Automatic annotation (TrEMBL), chains A, B:
Domain PurM-like N-terminal: 53-165
Superkingdom per UniProt: Bacteria
Pfam families, alphabetized: AIRS, AIRS_C
Domain PurM-like C-terminal: 177-321
SUPFAM superfamilies: PurM C-terminal domain-like (SSF56042), PurM N-terminal domain-like (SSF55326)
Family, per entry: Belongs to the HypE family.
Protein name: Hydrogenase expression/formation protein HypE
Organism, as annotated: Novosphingobium indicum
InterPro entries: HypE, PurM-like_C_dom, PurM-like_C_sf, PurM-like_N, PurM-like_N_sf
Length: 349, 349
């Protein structure tokens, strides 16, 4: 096989070998067996029975679980602050956190293009292992498919997750009420802009680093402290604006945001201005919005600031206003945020 | 956009519209919202809260669940007996059945190539809905990603599944003992050969129809009737031979199969002979092996024959022989089955 660079990771990494994925790695035969035994089980198996066949049997604590899935197609596969592996673990863990659940188990489905370097797969799997260990979640089942050269794009990963619901009250747009405060857990726009800069070789100075990470710990702390969380939403594709529009529509309420309060770092703001991108619509991967009663807002904020000093209240749910609307108050006036139809930044997750 | 045929389904289907998937369908914005509201929720939502955000919260019956995942990359997307949608539901349902679990919930992750016909997506989603309804499983959470034209292959689907474990004893290679009988639930090789024939336009007469379907009902009946199931394995990629080699290796036992007993239909046998393919290694998608104590074999067989008259005992676990070996007894003698290194039939699931 040729040693072309087409499937190598986009970041310079020392290359200790040149074994490449072949179609037979997806056949269920000897090479599939080797891939599982040499790459996946050493990273993920915690007991000899783990990952030995197509399903996992696990004991469930409690009576309610959260269940979520995401496929990851980010380009490039490696970006400042993370890679497709850490993203695939944290993104799904964060979806569980948004359900008020403690993450317990993950599945991983790999669709690999023929020719992908096994060494690169090992690095991504190691990154998944590290992210899973950091958050205390176990990868218990998986699947590998290989598609012919030219019929994939290096690597796609799907992760699904199961968590134990620890929230004692439902967390949902239905709980959102006029007077509630909208808090964001950190500064916005870093993931989308970091991926964009890496993909387009934009040499921002200082470089923008993705916020890719788990929000499980702050959410579990809010729940431990008995904060009445009306709604939680991670601010991924579509950013803060899209997340709040969806919640306002589902809840049938109006929201108002203070533009001046919305935390965006100077490097992200500068990059967005240069590229004509609105940071309110840029994806984050380690940042969420919490909607809480006004009486709980100060306590929630002080807890969140232990994890990220940029956490801040950015707006509130209004008692009047058109149901489903989100208004942005600026020095120049107030205008309604809309869903955007087009794609600002494709394939950021 | 052009109306090129490159992403259309391989079977002739009336085409009621020409809307195509755009990158923005994966952006999290307006088009993603429309896709969910117009295609996914009408097919899958059973209550207004279903599929409204990134995770589902469900009540768990019992204390043990099975969890499994599979990505589906089959080509062509439609084949005699099924399509990627029915395959994605049944394949994952069958993995849960192999854990002795009643399937409850599914997730679906779509990776769609820009340009794919929305109408084709609707048909595949309808096929998933029908397959899920037939088996009584609910699709409760999902995700959609869109990749640029040329960076995918029409459509990949990942499904993950959760089931309630109903087996009172562990079902695992560890339970397998000398004297146990190996039963297969139906005739072998239909799925792989049906997909191969469709992909290569091989006009076998009579046509070979995939066995794509759920094995949940027969497995639950075996459990209901109190059959002591030592091990279950669906005979997908790698076929019967690979499944039994894996079990024999995990269990540290030797098995012996009677070649004459192995059920292969005449059309499949003929097609395999023409193509030089061994049906023992061809994938099935509605067929499993059950390994049971000799004392239970007759009762297990009579139950399985209520579902498929081709169910039959094909071999046994030997008290001697090399651990991990599977021997095939033919009229001409006995030879050891090996894992195959290469890929007979890529992308059959």
């Amino acid at each position: 096989m040729t040693e072309g660079p087409e499937f190598t990771l986009q970041c310079p990494l020392p290359d200790s070998g040149h074994e490449r994925i072949e179609l037979a790695h997806g056949s269920g035969g000897l090479l599939t067996h080797r891939l599982i035994e040499e790459v996946f089980r050493p990273a993920f198996a915690q007991s000899p029975d783990d990952l030995t066949h197509d399903g996992a049997v696990v004991d469930v604590p409690g009576t309610q679980i959260a269940f979520t899935t995401d496929s990851y197609v980010v380009r490039p596969l490696v970006f400042p602050g993370g890679d497709i592996g850490s993203l695939a673990v944290n993104g799904t863990v964060n979806d569980l956190a948004m359900c008020g659940a403690r993450p317990l188990w993950l599945s991983a489905g790999f669709v690999i293009e023929e020719g992908f370097l096994v060494e690169d797969l090992r690095r991504i799997v190691a990154s998944m292992r590290d992210a899973a260990q950091a958050v205390g979640v176990r990868l218990v089942t998986g699947d590998t498919k290989v598609v012919e050269r030219g019929h994939g794009d290096g690597l796609y990963i799907n992760t699904s997750g199961i968590g134990a619901v620890v929230a004692s009250q439902p967390i949902s747009p239905r709980q959102v009420q006029p007077g509630d405060v909208v808090i964001v857990s950190g500064d916005l726009g870093r993931h989308g802009m970091a991926v964009m800069a890496a993909r387009e070789n934009l040499g921002f100075e200082p470089p923008i680093v993705s916020d890719c990470g788990s929000v499980s710990a702050p959410v579990l702390r809010l729940l431990d402290e008995g904060i009445d969380l009306h709604c939680l939403r991670d601010l991924t594709r579509g950013g803060l604006a899209t997340a709040l529009i969806e919640i306002a529509e589902s809840a049938g309420v109006a929201m108002e945001l203070e533009a001046a309060a919305i935390p965006v770092s100077d490097p992200v703001r500068g990059a967005c201005e240069i590229l004509g991108i609105d940071p309110l619509y840029v994806a984050n991967e380690g940042c969420f919005a919490a909607i809480v009663p006004e009486s709980e807002a100060a306590r929630a904020l002080s807890i969140l600031r232990e994890f990220d000093s940029a956490a801040i209240a950015v707006g509130s749910v209004r008692s009047g206003g058109a149901a489903g609307s989100v208004a942005l108050k600026t020095m120049g006036g107030s205008y309604a945020l809309d869903r955007i139809a087009g794609e600002q930044l494709p394939r950021i997750c």
